[in-house]
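To the wet lab folks,

You asked to see what we're planning to order before we commit. Fair enough. Below is the target structure as tokens, and below that is the sequence we designed to fit it. If anything looks off to you, flag it before the synthesis order goes out.
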């Protein structure tokens, strides 16, 4: 079975057009009791030229005692965005891929009253690896910069 983008559906992720958010696709685990759903909540993705944007809507539970988005939430969004990029920009099922390396530079605090987006671009793709970089942003403000390497799932 193939998704709206012509790629095979994932057995792990719900990736479909969201009728309530034109231009966006859902990016959620089918099992919402796992980390992504239980901790992060609903997420959406879309391709913008050669980049992938992953969005979450922060809630009070995502804040720290300073009333800004907790750094761990920002890191989780970054990590999840690598897999959304693998699915939307590369070739591969994100379900069984793994993060090999992740480097993050925090630049500012995230405002919990605005959507938090990770914008990712693929630097290079090989047979087994994807090299990615991006920024976490809120409107025109940068919250963090990052780069990462993902190893794609083994072919069976």
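Sequence we intend to order:
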């Amino acid at each position: 079975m193939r998704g709206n983008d012509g790629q095979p559906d994932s057995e792990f992720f719900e990736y479909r057009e969201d009728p309530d958010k034109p231009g966006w696709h859902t990016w959620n685990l089918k099992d919402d009791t796992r980390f992504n759903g239980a901790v992060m909540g609903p997420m959406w993705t879309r391709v913008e030229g050669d980049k992938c944007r992953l969005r979450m809507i922060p809630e009070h539970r995502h804040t720290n005692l300073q009333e800004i988005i907790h750094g761990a939430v920002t890191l989780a969004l970054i990590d999840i965005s690598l897999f959304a990029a693998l699915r939307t920009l590369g070739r591969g099922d994100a379900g069984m891929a793994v993060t090999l390396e992740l480097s993050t530079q925090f630049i500012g605090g995230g405002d919990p009253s605005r959507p938090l987006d990770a914008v990712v671009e693929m630097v290079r793709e090989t047979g087994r690896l994807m090299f990615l970089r991006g920024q976490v942003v809120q409107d025109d403000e940068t919250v963090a910069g990052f780069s990462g390497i993902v190893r794609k799932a083994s072919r069976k």
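Structural context that might help your review: The chain has a mean pLDDT of 90. The chain has one domain: 13-151.

Thanks,
Computational group
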